[in-house]
Specification:
Layout (H helix, E strand, L loop, with lengths): L12 H10 L7 E6 L19 E6 L4 E7 L10 E3 L2 E10 L7 E6 L5 E8 L4 E8 L3 E3 L11 E3 L1 H17 L4 E8 L1
Parallel strand pairs: 1-11, 9-10
Antiparallel strand pairs: 1-2, 2-3, 3-10, 4-7, 5-6, 5-11, 7-8
């Protein structure tokens, strides 16, 4: 099974601006994640699958607009695995993978204690329950997996372009944090 679509998401800048306005986001630089962007053209029809890059992420600033193939779900369902709830969250520059060394540039939650609201999978009842997730980062995935235990991941061949653009636009407009709107289709 293919885990990445043949093209990047094609949502218009105008549609992304509409979503940000509806969410009340006025920052000059913002991110929008769309869970289920490819749900009718990848995986099982009319379903947001896990373990594939069937989502999209967009960066918008006065001088930039770009889209990237992304994943907003865990790589696989297992007990207590986290799925970030749709909503607006603030992220900051940080590093991912620091438990294994120096890590690499990524985005980390800007909230106190880095906690965010999540749904957690309960295998006994095949349902979800509300919980709190820590360090739900935005980081690089891999070529054979989305590499997520609940984080938001970007396809690896697109990662450098994504993080360089995000950091560059945050620097250009003096933003210490960046809003991330996670919406569901």
């Amino acid at each position: 099974m293919k885990i990445v679509p043949p093209s990047k998401p094609l949502q218009s800048r105008k549609e992304t601006e509409r979503l940000l306005k509806k969410a009340g986001i006025t920052d000059q630089v913002a991110l929008v994640g769309i869970r289920g962007y490819y749900k009718n053209s990848m995986g099982e029809r009319n379903r947001n699958d896990i373990g594939i890059y069937d989502d999209g992420i967009f960066i918008l600033s006065p001088q930039a607009y770009a889209s990237f193939n992304a994943n907003t779900d865990p790589s696989r369902l297992k007990p207590a695995v986290a799925t970030l709830k749709a909503g607006v969250y603030r992220y900051k520059k940080g590093r991912h993978g620091i438990s294994r060394g120096a890590g690499y540039p990524a985005l980390r939650p800007a909230t106190q204690g880095e906690t965010l609201p999540v749904k957690r999978y309960n295998a006994k009842t095949d349902s979800y329950y509300d919980g709190v997730g820590t360090a739900i980062n935005i980081h690089k995935g891999s070529y054979t997996s989305t590499s997520s235990a609940g984080c938001q991941t970007v396809y690896p061949s697109q990662w450098d372009a994504f993080i360089n653009l995000v950091y560059g636009e945050m620097n250009r407009y003096g933003q210490k944090t960046i809003p991330y709107l996670l919406a569901e289709y």
